[in-house]
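WARN retry 2 of 3 for item q-0093 after timeout on previous attempt; input resubmitted unchanged.
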Amino acid sequence: MNLSRLFKLGPLPSKNYVDYNLSAIICEDAANVFPVDKYLRETKISAELIGSRDIIKSLFPDIENRKNVKITESISQKDSILKLLETAKTQSDKHTVLSIPTSHLSILAAALPEEYSFTSVSIFTLPESERAVLLTDAFLDYQPTPATLAKLAENAHRIFKLFSDKKPKTAFLSANEKASEKVASTLSAQQAAELSRENMLAEGPLSFDLSLSPASADIKQYKGEIRGDADILVAPRRETASALYFSWKNFANLHPINITFINNTPLFYCDPSDSDISKLLSAEFAITSKVKGPLNKNDTNTQEA
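OK item q-0093 returned
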């Protein structure tokens, strides 16, 4: 996948996507209506829209005239998620893409079978360097173990490999780059880095500025391998990731790709506050993505297979 082309906003959608299927949960906040509607109008993708029939018809006024779309009625958010997961299970060998509003993420994470863990990744391109940085966190797990953080990094690594062949530099974030018993997240970051597989260069704990600012690394005379050029950022907690995400999105005006996978099936999610560009980028990335090997599998073995 040519991510640089994608972020430079070539014509989207980029293909007709014949034989592809999009299964999307639609609700009142209309978070993902724009990209779903655009792909339905401009490609030959088939779609299953899950939710209240009345709400779907109000958001897609000509839905009854579209032959490539079916509506699956649901009675609640949880019911919608369960039906989406059933589609992911039965259509896993086909070109299937899933989509949900951000408001359904916590329900999705809670509804996943025990053998899966949940990893959401946001991909940003930094304006000065024009390179991609992946941001991930443990979401509902507010006290992630080092093993959990290492597993998040591995899942993010598999997404990174969709558009890059290089060995990614992974930073386990904390308040500073020195491990201390007084700051628990520094110890977790250190242990997570030690557990990480050899297919990435991992360091932790690492402060945010050392992870992304070469100038800060020079000023602080940091001697590590990651000197402002991290490819993957693993946040210690959900609050940290959320603060970074909204700072980049709202104050730096960046347009994130929001992606996860249910087994091998890509899922993009949208927030009502996301820009139309962000929503299109997320949809195109998901539709054109195909990972090798299971993603999100709850495997605590952190050695290279």
